[in-house]
Design brief:
Elements lengths: L12 H31 L16 H9 L4 E6 L7 H14 L3 E6 L5 H11 L11 E6 L2 E6 L4 E12 L7 E12 L1 H13 L4 E6 L16 H9 L2 E6 L13 E5 L7 H12 L3 E5 L11 H6 L3 E3 L4 E2 L11 E4 L1 E2 L3 H4 L6 E4 L4 E3 L10 E7 L5 E2 L11 E8 L12 E6 L15 H12 L12 E2 L9 H31 L1
Parallel strand pairs: 1-2, 7-8, 7-9, 9-10, 10-20
Antiparallel strand pairs: 1-3, 3-4, 5-6, 6-21, 11-16, 12-18, 13-15, 14-17, 17-19, 19-20
Amino acid sequence: MPDDSKSRPSFSTANRWRIGFDVGLRTLLVIAVLGMVNFLGSKFFQRYHWSAQTQPGLSSRTLTLLHSLTNHFEVTLYYDRQADIYPQIAALLNEYRAVDKNITVRTVDYIRDPGAAELIKEKYQSHFPPEADTNLVIFEGGGVVRVLPGDKLTKYEDKFVGMKPRADNPQKRDMEFRHTAIAFNGEPAFSSILMSLANPVPVKAYYLTGNGEVSLMDSGQTGFEKFAVALQQDYISLALLDWIGPTGVPADCNLLIIAAPKTPLKPAELDAINQYLREGGKLLVCFAANSQGHPTGLENVLKSWGINVLDDIAQDFNYSTTTQGYDMIVDQFGQHPIVNSLAQSQLQLYLPRPIVKLPAGDKANAPQVDELLFTSPGGSLMADHSAPHGRYPLACAVEQKPVAGVANPRGDTRIVVVGDATFLGNLMIDSGGNRDFLVAAANWLSDRPLLLEGVAPRPVTNFRLDITRHQERQLDWLLLGALPGGVLLLGWLVWLVRRK
């Protein structure tokens, strides 16, 4: 009998239909599973970062800000994707978008997508800053546009990397420096812009001048240029107040700042400041070591609000980086919204004056005074050697609500007094939590409780691999010889096994 099995097809029609149905069903099941995973991911989103370089980690202050926003914002990265800092900017904006679904982010690479780039220029070029027309971060919301140059987001420094032979004389060597990114300021800049788009009217602060105060335009070590930038990034508008005239503190003043006056204020100015405070004004005062022994007049004003500025300098040799004890590392904080977010931080102060809370006594409706910063229990006074060692306060916050039934035109009175101004100068403001203290104090004074946690610039970590010529040759052999040769050898062994 002839063998029919050889003449029958390998797969009958029924088998083919069964296999096709099985493959189609499995494909549909995989698609269904992926769809469910995508749905659950949209409902219960959690992002994991495997690299420290791609983990922006938004601060709690920014998270609170994003949760408070209700408007829609469009962010356009008009950027070269190959730029060094682009991955950090894109990763940070993606974190903003992940928290607030009202934020949309897109990238237009002006080098690789010239058509889309032309459309962006037509739409936003009138808002481009004069110093840059590429590598821009464009924010739009509520019909308002803010454009931020990318080079403003990164702080660079020339770092020594080694010695290199001279081109004209290889026997001699010159020092080689590399322009290196050391800090990324994206989060404070982006959060500030979002605040400005969500709140068209910024906090108006006046900075008193005319009595030898530190200059906001001074870029030197003790200048306050960075001080001004920190407040502006927190959406606080700064204006100079040359002197307080007969009309008193301007009516639109939300915050008055007095930093390290060298000469006494005029009696009329002191009276105007006191009247401003009685109306519910907000005041930030920073003293300096050079005012010790030279009263400014503010000392008497502050006494009426429960604060005593001791005529001395506090020292703490156990927490100083100098043998003379001029500077001081402070990690002792009180309980107050300004410093609650700084519990794990340290401040660095320079020759601070003690700022002490006065006993309230039986005074009706006495202001509430809280001491914010302290030396360690080993603190001492520079001038009064007979004073015992102890925990000296270095800053105080005052709050007084109006009497029941009486409304102050400016709201609740709030005052912050710090015994040092140098720690907020250009040289020291980036030390530890100094900048965060300034931002938190300004936001508490401005009655912005959602923004009481500071955002410091992120350090940029640079990785550099230095190898010798011998190690370079070894890597060449490994990458160009050993690895491809190993793959060929493995393939040849597999061929031998299959052949047998």
